[in-house]
Every structure is written in C-alpha cells, then in structure tokens.
Amino acid sequence: MKAFTSYRVAAEHAGLTVEDYLKTIHHYSGRRLQKLTRRKGILLKGKSVFLQKKLHSGDLLQVLILEEDTSKLQPEKGPVEILYEDAFLLVLNKPAFMLVHPTGRTTNGTLANYLAYHLQERGQGGTIRPVHRLDRETSGCVIFAKDARSQFLLEQQLKEKTLRRTYWALVKGVVTPPAGTIEAPIGPHPTQANRGAVQAQGQPAITHYRTIRNLGENSLLELTLATGRTHQIRVHLAHLGYPILGDGMYGVRVPWLSRQALHASRVSFHHLQDNREISVDAPLPADLTRALELCERQ
C-alpha cells in the first residue's frame, strides 16, 4: 500500500509552482522530485500533476513517501546510542559533528550509516527513515521511523504540532525578557549562500523560549519550535541580539568551544499504537556541560 504526505497550500504560497513549493517550503531535493515525477508520485486534487503547475490557496498536494534504495546507503560500524525504541520508531542521540544522513558528496560516516549497520547486525535490515534533521554540529534527539506508515504518521504529527522538539542553547547576553516568542519570517540570505535571514518576504517562523538560568554575561535557554525552518533557532536568536556561543555562521566564536552550543534535549510525540504521550530526553554532552561550568565561573 502506497503512503502519501499531504500538504494544504496556504494563502501566502498561492502562485508558486509545485516544484518551487516543494523545494522552498518543504525542502525537497531536485533528485527526489525527479524520482517522484517518474513514479507519478505527486498528486494535486488526487491526480498526477506536472512540476510547473501553479498552486492555489487551499489546494491539497499529496506526495508519495518513497521507499529509498538502501543499497546506496552503506552500513558502517559506528556509535549508535538508542534513547528509546518501540515497534514503530527509534530515538537516537546524535553526537555533534555527525550528519544525520548522507548528503551531497558525504556518503558515509553518518548516523544513518551506523544505524543501518546496527539494524543489519540484528537481522533487521530495511530503509533508514529519519523523520527530521539536525545540523551537523547540533547534538541530541533524532527520530527514525521503522517503516513507511510510521514515517507518514510521525510526519503528520510534526505538521499538527503534536510531535514537539525542545532544544537547549547557550547564548551571549542576559536575555530580556527572560521568556517569550520570536515570530519573524525567515528566507534565504540576500548575499551569503547557504544562510538564512529574517526578512519580510520569508516563510513564517515561530520560536518559543525561556531562560533556564543566567550564567554571568551569558544565558542558558530552552527553546521549542512551532515551525521548522532551516537554521531557525540560530537565525532567530541572532536576530534577537543573543547569538549562540560557538556558532561560526550566525553566532559568536569562543576559544573554549569547538561548535555551536545547541542541543536537541527532548522530543515528545504520541505513541503510534495507543496514542499515549511519550517524551524522550538526551543528556547534555560533556563539551556543553564544561561550557556551562566555565560560564558560571566567569
């Protein structure tokens, strides 16, 4: 049975082509769109549609969930820390400096490669399906679905905001007010490639934050995402005037931290069988624990 992800086109996205909508709003790659086109896996109002078709407000776009060719994902022996597992999914603790899955020219050394090996050793080979992503330098919780149906249901929870992601960030400055909501649209940076920026014509982006504690001239924040734009937390905090320590792209480099001080501390979701709420926590890694101690002593 084929499974589809459904998107209802918002008024502000009316006029975009199917291709632009899926690429810019939902971050589909060109290669993935080619695969979907070959399989007639993009439906508008229940019928196959070509990529240059313009969308209208309220249109229902359905996109086939692909069973990726796992022969291209080379299983590799490597660290896999399982924080939670059931019949439908796993939550892994991603170390900093590791990609979630192969991208671009990087085909090995990712969390997906290591999970493929781990499952193969168990006799549980199959498609590796990350439900969401983390930046290379960000540590913490990542959810992997075990089958296409579970992936679809978890992606629906993401859209409906019943799957929640919580982060900790160490930022420069004493945040005022100590709790609040950052609501500022994010789009591509006008002059710098691969960066985001707050801009009026960007996509809606909402981040909630609260101060856990002040540490001298710095603050430890807890943040939750109401939307999932690329680099959202990093862009929003820099825009607010409290950049993340160690973030070489948007924040402030410091000699005592080799990466951005951002950690995916918790994921919460509804169990796919009995609907009970489950929360999974990832412990703060040693480098960020040391960073907090150093800030407290300053």
Automatic annotation (TrEMBL):
Q: Which reaction does it catalyse?
A: a uridine in RNA = a pseudouridine in RNA
Key words, A-Z: Isomerase
Q: Which GO terms describe its biological process?
A: enzyme-directed rRNA pseudouridine synthesis
Q: What is its EC number?
A: 5.4.99.-
Query: What top-tier enzyme class does this entry carry?
Result: isomerase
Q: Which InterPro entries match?
A: PsdUridine_synth_cat_dom_sf (IPR020103), PsdUridine_synth_RluA-like_CS (IPR006224), PsdUridine_synth_RluC/D (IPR006225), PsdUridine_synth_RsuA/RluA (IPR006145), RluA_PseudoU_synthase (IPR050188)
Q: Which CDD domains match?
A: PseudoU_synth_RluA_like
User: Where does the source fall among the domains of life?
Assistant: Bacteria
Q: Name one GO molecular function term.
A: RNA binding
Q: Which family does it belong to?
A: Belongs to the pseudouridine synthase RluA family.
State its role.
Responsible for synthesis of pseudouridine from uracil.
Recorded protein name is: Pseudouridine synthase
Give the matching Pfam families. Answer: PseudoU_synth_2
Residue stretches making up the Pseudouridine synthase RsuA/RluA-like domain: 89-239
Active site location: 135
